[in-house]
């Protein structure tokens, strides 16, 4: 629960910083598709607004779904997603603004995104693209965020701040999250981790090798009870990936002057011949042979090649 005037906001935000674009004091709850909105919400252009202000995810196609969920809000959904308002069965759908190119970092790599971005699968990018978690409606400006927090645990934020459970950092693919959840459920049938040995057993089953001391630190710093959401944060830290991938994708985006998500093969040849450890003409030819398509090199193919 949050104090009066605050919104349940994995980033700590001041209520004064949270804002929406809906008129008459109403709050954004979902993206409007063809004028359709969740119950008790009204369409204002492309926005659905209501007095309640609980976010609903919207999936343009079934391919955008990230599993089923049981109730409105972010509970049971990955970061950047929330339960849809579908009648009968609800699914985890995006709440990030993937329609704005400014929020899109680039294509996913095997469904993975760098820290701070999540994979979304709109019709225009069925293989997935990485969208900034800073585009979740209602999140306070990045300069006013004071750190990570544990959802539904007010003491994890300083006085005057609340925890924004839709944002945070995420870099696991949907398949990885499903695999981690399956392993978690095997060793924690009630959905809670109760001890350090239990936590270490699950981590080791996933292929991680934390020391007993490190595992105890994880257990101590996370508020109890330790549910799947809290465990996923520990798995991210153990995974210890994302920084190098971030730099590669950002560098390619900086070179993409026309927004084609590709780079001319000639330009890539020049870059490979002039930076870092110099490559021979034969080595460069071999790289281009594997990634170039019709004189252009798609970012997706190049990133996949580099990350091998």
UniProtKB/TrEMBL annotation:
InterPro entries: Cys_repeat_1, EF-hand-dom_pair, EF_hand_dom, Myosin_RLC. The keyword Repeat applies. Coiled coil: none annotated. Keywords: Repeat. Residues 243-278 form the EF-hand domain. GO terms for molecular function: calcium ion binding. It comes from the Eukaryota. The keyword rRNA processing does not apply. This is EF-hand domain-containing protein. The lineage of its organism: Eukaryota, Metazoa, Ecdysozoa, Nematoda, Chromadorea.
């Amino acid at each position: 629960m949050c104090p009066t005037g605050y919104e349940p906001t994995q980033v700590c935000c001041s209520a004064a910083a949270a804002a929406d674009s809906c008129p008459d004091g109403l709050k954004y709850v979902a993206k409007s598709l063809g004028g359709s909105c969740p119950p008790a919400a009204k369409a204002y252009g492309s926005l659905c607004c209501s007095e309640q202000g609980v976010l609903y995810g919207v999936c343009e196609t079934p391919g955008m779904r990230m599993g089923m969920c049981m109730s409105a809000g972010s509970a049971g959904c990955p970061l950047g997603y929330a339960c849809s308002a579908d009648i009968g069965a609800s699914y985890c759908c995006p709440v990030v603004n993937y329609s704005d190119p400014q929020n899109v970092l680039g294509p996913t790599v095997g469904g993975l995104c760098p820290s701070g971005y999540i994979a979304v699968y709109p019709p225009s990018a069925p293989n997935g693209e990485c969208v900034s978690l800073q585009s979740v409606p209602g999140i306070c400006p990045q300069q006013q965020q004071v750190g990570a927090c544990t959802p539904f645990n007010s003491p994890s934020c300083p006085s005057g701040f609340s925890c924004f459970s839709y944002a945070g950092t995420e870099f696991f693919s949907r398949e990885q999250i499903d695999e981690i959840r399956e392993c978690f459920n095997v060793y924690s049938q009630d959905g809670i981790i109760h001890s350090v040995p239990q936590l270490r057993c699950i981590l080791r089953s996933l292929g991680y090798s934390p020391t007993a001391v490190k595992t105890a630190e994880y257990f101590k710093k996370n508020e109890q009870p330790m549910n799947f959401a809290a465990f996923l944060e520990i798995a991210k830290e153990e995974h210890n990936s994302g920084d190098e991938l971030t730099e590669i994708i950002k560098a390619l985006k900086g070179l993409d002057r026309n927004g084609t998500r590709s780079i001319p093969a000639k330009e890539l040849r020049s870059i490979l011949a002039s930076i870092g450890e110099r490559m021979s003409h034969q080595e460069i030819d071999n790289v281009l042979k594997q990634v170039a398509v019709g004189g252009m090199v798609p970012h997706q193919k190049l990133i996949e090649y580099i990350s091998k």
